[in-house]
Amino acid sequence: MIEDPAAHRRRPTDVVPVVCWVLSLALLSASVVIIQADPQTSHGVPGFGDAAWWWAVAVLSLQAVALAGLGRHPRAALLAVAAGVPAMFVVGGDAIGVGLVTVMVATYRAVLARPARRLLATLLGAAALVAAGVAAATVRSGGEGWVVVVAGLLQGVAAVGLPFVLGSVVAARHDALTALAATADAQDRERDALVQVAVERERTAMARELHDIAAHHLSGIAVMTGAIGRQIDVDPEGAKVAVAQVREQSTAMLRDLRNLVVLLRDVDAPVEPGGPVRMETLAGIDDLVAGAQAAGLPVSLTTAGPVGELAASGAVGPLAQLAAYRVVQEALANAARHAPGARCEVRLDASDEGRVDVVVRNGRPAAGQGPAHHDPGYGLVGMQERAELTGATLRFGATLEGGWQVTLSVPTAVATAVPDEPTTSEEEGR
User: Fold this and answer.
1) Are residues 230 and 318 in the same domain?
2) Superkingdom, according to UniProt (predicted)?
């Protein structure tokens, strides 16, 4: 049978009334023995077997019963125990103190159980009962005048005040420990929440990278396979060339995915054979456009201002360059999906000081080539997240000609000098 933990925790508390009863009887017996040794100092203290003796034993027993039976009602237990002190006045002032042991224990337990401000009336009532009982016992022992009053007040204050102070200190320490435990628990929950947020951010970043890589290459593969379907019967040689291009796109996608996996690994882990991991930069946009042209997309690249110098000097950070690369990659993939056959223009402009503008613009779909059916994606969401991560500004929307334009303004770390004439290089798609 499984033992009730709550019952196990109550056992030490249930022993307290018994201990108080035994201690009180021991003190009463000790006082009788001492007084019998010198009868001249008895002052009305009863001897063993006297009616007053048995009355005192009965009162002490009732105090212990009240302390045990009213354990769940500490205020009622304190008042009941304190009421036993006046009932013991028959033992005289020299032995009345034995009834205060249970009173002090009841006061301590009441202070621990309830806030002190709610115990004020109970504490005052208990102190008054103790003072009345001590005063009556002092009178029985022959005391008079101020001696009776002072003895009652001192005993009442001591019997209630001392355990009140001790209980308050212990309760304050318990509250402090509870508060520390609650704070530690809250910090653990906050730490877990931060870890969860970090994990979600990493998942989002990985999903964004996978989306950008796969969307770009798969869009090119989709365009080329569509051309293969038309060429395979009328132009077999051209179809073979297109198949080779599909293979190149597939290989490039696998390479980019491998680079992403390596970047996600531990920095101390050795890099697998096959060359260093390539970090996409502004300079890589030229190869990106060339790859799109090889896939059959009519796209051109124009640069203005010292784009290469800014990228090489570190004025545009590596994360910002990667964001610009991915935005161009995603914009070209979107153009291939939503506007097949439309002419695309990619422009890198560093003419204005303090920023580099990356613009991808496409026109209407070619005649007879409507956009293919597709499920809603997260391309624009990923672009916006990259812009926010690097402090860049992203703008996108439809053009007056019916096309679409995406503009990413990337801030630079240092001011750049504007050349007299922009350098322009343009590569036309086949």
Assistant:
1) yes
2) Bacteria
